[in-house]
Specification:
- The complex is a heterodimer of chains A (371) and B (323).
- Helix content of chain A is 51%, strand content 13%.
- Chain A has an eight-stranded mixed sheet with strand order 3-4-2-5-1-6-7-8, sandwiched between helices.
- The two termini of chain A are 14 Å apart.
- Chain B is of the alpha/beta class.
- Chain B has a single domain, classed as Rossmann fold (3-Layer(aba) Sandwich).
- In chain B, 52% of the residues lie in helices and 14% in strands.
- Chain B has 13 helices and eight strands.
- An eight-stranded mixed sheet of chain B has the order 3-4-2-5-1-6-7-8, with helices on both faces.
- Chain B is elongated, with a radius of gyration of 22 Å.
- The chains are: A alpha/beta (371), B alpha/beta (323).
- At the A-B interface, helix 5, helix 9, helix 10, helix 11 and helix 13 of A face helix 5, helix 6, helix 8, helix 9 and helix 10 of B.
């Protein structure tokens, strides 16, 4: 039986079905009578449709389904990093004027769209907001694909460190607001830098940082609050698929993840029984070997079974490695077999959520919720 | 067109796609196919995650190109058909560039003060720009007949390819601005550089590929080569007919029926996605087969390179652009 904290974060590389598993996990919890919100990052169209998420929905969670008998609720929301970032700046700015100036700077767009880790930071921000939202008992979070979600865990302090960089501090003395106070040493460094990247860019960067004056303490408080949730109230689920390259990426995640993993979901396994793959596949009239071997049904099963054998071997090796990695000795494993047709509605998500649910509650059918 | 024509069409092929679609495999397969067609080929990996070294069975990759023993006629002495691979990281590209422009000592002082960090944080395009700048420099120096670049995963691929434009807009002078202008000149010339997108015949990768393609053409003005649809399940002749024949025959092993249904469903969905891609993205398609392997090695790459070469043969020659 698996016990999960109030917040569950799903990690994994691209293409393994992380978003689907996050949605299925949330559905499994909601079916047990909890009020759950799933934060998705970039859901496939059909999954978004299945969850009732449309473009332009913004940051507001939408109710997907309610179970009147148990009081369970499934809510879904899609991350809007730019909107979240604007909210944070708006909240922490000392005045509307300051917020407007920050957002009007051309580098702000850069920061929102391409600073590595911005999406991760915004996902962490949203996690925190949803965690403090009284409408929800639990939060399930899908993570952005870059660096497979690990950045997410390192992200909360990022904005604070960014606006509180030592050069920035040396450029702007604590009490002042304008370039006059730039120290002689820093001036020289900036001039040299201007020779490489162009003086205009350096000026823009200085103005940009100057705009953030006074926001750093607010950013730090937020980062600490998020880190607290991640440290004490969060469970981690690794989603992987059984092929060599994704598993290499999954190992990379396991090596870097400091908190222990609660669950490893091996998703998209080839759906045939590897053991039944040999010659004795048992078609009708199996006595004629030539016919049997050329039967398209047999050929197909053999091809799939050969793949399933490789997948099972990679899976077993991987699970052994994960459990061998100190803190993860107790991680549970859930295997999910792929279907020929892709996930397209809540029923498909339900199939996966049933598998997760069975594993979470254990064979005794207990309640997997944690205090 | 012949493989010779195809690989001679430009000096640099940038391979881009969403994480998990097999972009690295396809990059390696293009490079092997080019080397087999007689081109001295350099394959460049930009991210540490791309497993290129393991796939190519070369130990590890670094800034110095290493020769790959593919099944062509590669030797250390004859550059025709040679395949080399390297890893290019922005830090090395930047250091290399500043050294070449005599700015090494300057940069040391600046970077000790943490200034580079601040500027690259506020203008992250600099890292991508120096990487593309290094690729351009190698292209101009003629270090290989063809350079194949395994680009960052697609969300980042667009930022990667638009970095020069963005930096040209925000930097008014200095070596970074020069780099930006030179890179833009390379990206805008289809005889020098083309982008090939890789996708899977699945919903999300296809949608993302269509979006990426339009973003790249609109924002970078880059020429897109054929789109590669990776891991397409090969058809088994007669499978559908046999499934219909056995029908509800209870003497037939249910595993055979379930496996056949799975495959036929899967192929039907793949076909739907391939058709949608053709409808939404007017580019030639190269399809590579699913190999029923959970791991890719050089033998698998070779097999895919065969398939790729066959497919290139049936791509119509490009229409004259009048330029």
């Amino acid at each position: 039986m698996i016990t999960l904290h109030r917040v569950t974060v799903c990690l994994g590389s691209g293409g393994v079905g992380k978003t689907t598993v996050a949605a299925a996990l949330a559905l499994a919890m909601a079916e047990r009578g909890e009020r759950v919100v799933v934060l998705t990052i970039d859901p496939a169209r059909r999954l978004a449709d299945a969850l009732g998420l449309q473009d332009g929905l913004g940051n507001e969670p939408a109710l997907v389904r309610r179970w009147d008998d148990t009081g369970g609720e499934l809510w879904a929301t899609m991350l809007d990093p730019a909107e979240t970032f604007r909210n944070v700046v708006q909240t922490e700015s000392t005045s509307d004027e300051q917020a407007r100036t920050i957002m009007a700077n051309s580098l702000f767009t850069n920061l929102v769209t391409s600073l590595s880790g911005t999406n991760e930071y915004m996902a962490a921000e949203r996690l925190h907001q949803l965690h403090s939202d009284e409408r929800f008992d639990r939060v399930v979070v899908d993570t952005p694909p870059s660096r497979h979600g690990i950045d997410f865990l390192e992200s909360p302090g990022r904005l604070y460190r960014f606006v509180n960089h030592r050069l920035y501090r040396s450029v702007f003395a604590p009490t002042t607001s304008l370039l006059r106070t730039v120290s002689a040493g820093s001036q020289m460094i900036l001039r040299l830098l201007g020779r490489i990247v162009g003086s205009r860019l350096v000026d823009d960067v200085i103005t940009f940082f100057a705009n953030f004056q006074g926001l750093d303490q607010g950013f730090r408080r937020r980062a600490e609050a998020i880190e607290e949730v991640l440290d004490t109230e969060t469970s981690f689920v690794l989603v992987a698929s059984p092929r060599a390259q994704p598993l290499e990426e999954a190992r990379w995640i396991v090596d870097r993840l400091k908190p222990p993993l609660s669950v490893v979901v091996m998703n998209r396994l080839c759906p045939v029984d590897a053991a039944g793959a040999g010659g004795g596949a048992g078609a009708e009239g199996g006595e004629d070997r030539t016919d049997f071997d050329t039967d398209p049904l047999v050929r197909n099963l053999r091809e799939l079974a050969a793949l399933a054998v490789q997948e099972q071997q990679l899976t077993d090796e991987f699970i052994a490695d994960v459990r061998g990695n100190g803190d993860n000795a107790d991680a549970s494993t859930i295997q999910i077999w792929e279907q020929g047709t892709p996930v397209s509605d809540l029923d498909d998500i339900e199939r996966i959520s049933d598998a997760l649910s069975a594993a979470m509650t254990g064979s005794g059918g207990g309640d997997g919720s944690a205090a | 067109m012949t493989a010779q024509d195809f690989f001679a069409a430009s000096n640099v092929l940038i391979v881009a796609g969403k994480g998990g679609v097999g972009k690295t495999t396809v990059g390696a397969c293009l490079a092997v196919a080019a080397a087999r067609a007689g081109f001295d080929t350099l394959l460049i990996e930009l991210e540490g995650f791309s497993h290129l070294a393991r796939t190519l069975q070369v130990g590890s990759l670094g800034y110095e190109p290493r020769t790959v023993n593919h099944h062509g006629r590669a030797t250390e002495t004859d550059s025709s058909g040679r395949l080399r691979a390297m890893q290019l990281r922005p830090e090395e590209a930047l250091a290399d560039y500043l050294d070449r422009t005599g700015m090494g000592p300057l940069i040391n002082r600046v970077s000790r003060a943490g200034a580079i960090e601040v500027v690259t944080a506020a203008a992250p395009g600099i890292r991508d720009l120096v990487t593309l700048g290094k690729i351009r420099q190698m292209e101009q120096a003629g270090v290989a007949d063809l350079i194949v670049v395994d680009a960052p995963a697609s969300g980042h691929a667009i930022t990667f390819l638009t970095c020069a434009e963005a930096m040209a807009a925000s930097s008014n002078s200095g070596p970074i601005r020069e780099q930006a202008d030179q890179v833009l000149a390379m990206l805008g010339d289809d005889t020098r550089c083309q982008v090939m997108l890789v996708t899977l015949p699945e919903e999300t990768p296809v949608s993302e590929t269509v979006e990426t393609a339009f973003a790249i053409e609109d924002r970078v003005g880059l020429k897109l080569g054929p789109v590669v649809v990776n891991s397409v399940w090969p058809t088994i002749d007669g499978l559908e007919r046999r499934l219909a024949e056995v029908g509800d025959n209870t003497r037939v092993d249910p595993a055979l029926i379930a496996a056949a249904r799975f495959r036929l469903d899967r192929q039907a969905d793949q076909n739907t996605q391939i058709d949608r891609l053709a409808r939404e993205l007017p580019l030639s398609q190269i399809t590579l087969p699913h190999l029923f392997r959970a791991d890719m090695d050089l033998a698998a790459i070779d097999e895919l390179a065969d398939a790729l070469t066959d497919q290139v043969d049936i791509i119509p020659p490009p229409e004259p652009t009048g330029s």
